[in-house]
Write a structure and sequence with these properties.
- With about 450 residues, the chain is an alpha/beta fold.
- Helices cover about 30% and strands about 25% of the residues.
- Strands 1, 2, 3, 4, 5, 6 and 17 form a 7-stranded mixed sheet that branches.
- The longest helix is centred in the N-terminal third of the chain and has 25 residues, at about 80-105.
- The chain is globular.
- Bound molecules: 1,4-dihydronicotinamide adenine dinucleotide.
- The site of 1,4-dihydronicotinamide adenine dinucleotide has 25 residues, from α6, β12 and β18.
- 1,4-dihydronicotinamide adenine dinucleotide binds near residues 181 and 267.
């Protein structure tokens, strides 16, 4: 059995990126993956397949709602659901095969099977035990169970089953108006499903800037998604061919039931570490099951590191990727670094929502004096031409120094627009730096510049 410098457990965005960087830095590297294909939740049952369905259904939405206004007449296309799923599966295959290619190119061994760690320095996969100087746990997350709800992935589904439904449901109840619930709820709403989201809190997408939350909910409601807010789901009961969700309104304690053909449980995820043998190793975890790591992603057991959804922080593929690269640098004797203050968050609905840095609520709570520069996409020529003028860019800057503290965008391509602000923040830029940068016309990016101008003497097109 060959021995390795590093064995990474898990081939999601954290694990595979870590493996590639380790190999590039000259470490003999293997990656363990028990799934049939590489790429983890993100590529197989998460980010990538959901984006394929969001894209396809957005095309349908455009055909139904904006084509005629642009002089494109004729019937809107019919939906061939099995074909749409086949397209989604093809997108998954292209991406997972791409990782396999990158592993071969970088001479990374794929150890096929589910790993356990019998002791530091050893990884067991099937009947084989491999030696490794360093072990990186990158096992990601799984759906958190919800009391009173049995997920069968047919009628009562998690995000995984929701990507593989055998038919388009007439009525979909989504439990939890967070990222997963709203992205997948959007997919089905565009396909003609009556979607109702039941949310425990009084605002959707917890933790986001409150102004974005309000505007986002309004836009989604206009798109046909119903919201029941301040409602705690108590359980789901199977019926003939469907299911009933029971919920209690927090305001008055009243009990209600809603009928559905399909129920999507989207109430959060938890670290996926079962089977690794963490307890026997004595690896410290939090009460939420997250592996405790220091600022170099080391656990309390020598030679074992952990990254991604399995540790603290936002459960985001790109956060895991950054940690994967950084821990590889550490293992190669260099300095790995992740700036946790500049990790964007994106929701891939239409319009998209993107956010980075502090929210207004956080700044108020911290007593930090700030100013706000806001610009509506109504003032952006390109957005108006493309029926994409819903939303705004909001930049928060230090009241005195003008340094950018956070940005919140709801609008077209928000997930791409956010990155010029991320780069600016990495360089410690002031809003004025963005405002003084020439932006090509006509682009959505001009709205970012206008918001930066609004932090100073004022936007031009407002
Ligand atoms: P989430 O934490 O974003 O949202 C869960 C929602 O469910 C919350 O609003 C919560 O208040 C609500 N909830 C919890 N229990 C409830 C109950 N009994 N009744 C009613 N509502 C209840 O979790 P989600 O959407 O499942 O996503 C899991 C993770 O995956 C998140 O960390 C998310 O960031 C990540 N993710 C990120 C994506 C992206 O970056 N675009 C896409 C999909 C997932």
């Amino acid at each position: 059995m060959p021995s390795y410098d590093v064995i990474i457990i898990g081939s999601g965005p954290g694990g595979y990126v870590c493996a590639i960087r380790c190999a590039q830095l000259g470490l003999k590297t293997a990656c363990v993956e028990g799934r049939e294909t590489l790429g983890g939740t993100c590529l197989n049952i998460g980010c990538i397949p959901s984006k394929a369905l969001l894209h396809a259904t957005q095309m349908l939405h455009e055909a139904q709602h904006t084509f005629a206004a642009m002089g494109l007449t004729g019937d809107a296309p019919d939906v061939d659901w099995p074909k749409m799923l086949a397209y989604k599966n093809d997108v998954i295959a292209q991406n997972t095969k791409g990782i396999e290619f990158l592993f071969k190119k970088n001479k990374i061994d794929w150890l096929k099977g589910w790993a356990s760690i019998p002791e530091a320095g050893k990884v067991k996969v099937g009947d084989d035990t491999h030696d490794a100087r360093h072990i990186v746990i990158a096992t990601g997350s799984e759906v958190s169970p919800l009391a009173g709800v049995d997920i069968d992935e047919k009628i009562v589904v998690s995000s995984e089953g929701a990507l593989e439904l055998d038919r388009i449901p007439k009525r979909l109840v989504v439990i939890g108006a967070g990222v997963i619930g709203l992205e997948l709820g959007s997919v089905y709403a565009r396909l003609g499903t009556k979607v109702t989201a039941i949310e425990y809190l009084d605002a959707i997408t917890p933790g986001m800037d409150a102004e974005v939350q309000r505007q986002f909910q309004k836009i989604l409601a206009k798109q046909g998604i119903d919201f029941v807010m301040g409602a705690a789901v108590q359980g789901v009961d199977r019926t003939d061919g469907g299911a009933n969700a029971r919920y209690k309104l927090r305001a008055d304690g009243s009990d209600h039931t809603i009928e559905a053909d399909t129920v999507l449980v989207a109430t959060g995820r938890r670290p996926f570490t079962g089977g690794l043998g963490l307890d026997a190793l004595g690896i410290a975890t939090t009460d939420r099951g997250q592996i405790v790591t220091d600022d170099r992603w080391a656990t309390n057991v020598d030679g074992i590191h952990a990254i991604g959804d399995a540790i603290a922080g936002p459960m985001l593929a790109h956060k895991a990727e950054d940690e994967g690269m950084a821990v590889a640098e550490v293992l190669a004797g260099k300095h790995g670094h992740v700036n946790y203050g500049v990790i964007p968050g994106v929701i891939y609905t239409h319009p998209e929502v993107a956010t980075v840095g502090a929210t207004e609520e956080q700044l108020k709570e911290a007593g930090h004096a700030y100013k706000t520069g806001k610009f509506s996409f109504m003032g952006n020529g390109r957005a108006k031409a493309n029926f994409a003028a819903d939303g705004f860019v909001k930049i928060l800057a230090d009241a005195e120094t003008d340094r950018i503290l956070g940005a919140h965008i709801i609008g077209p391509m928000a997930g791409d627009l956010i990155h010029e602000i991320c780069v600016a923040m990495e360089f410690g830029a002031a809003a004025q730096d963005l405002a003084m940068t020439c932006h090509a016309h006509p682009t959505y990016s001009e709205a970012v510049r206008e918001a930066a101008l609004a932090c100073g003497d004022g936007a031009i097109h407002a």
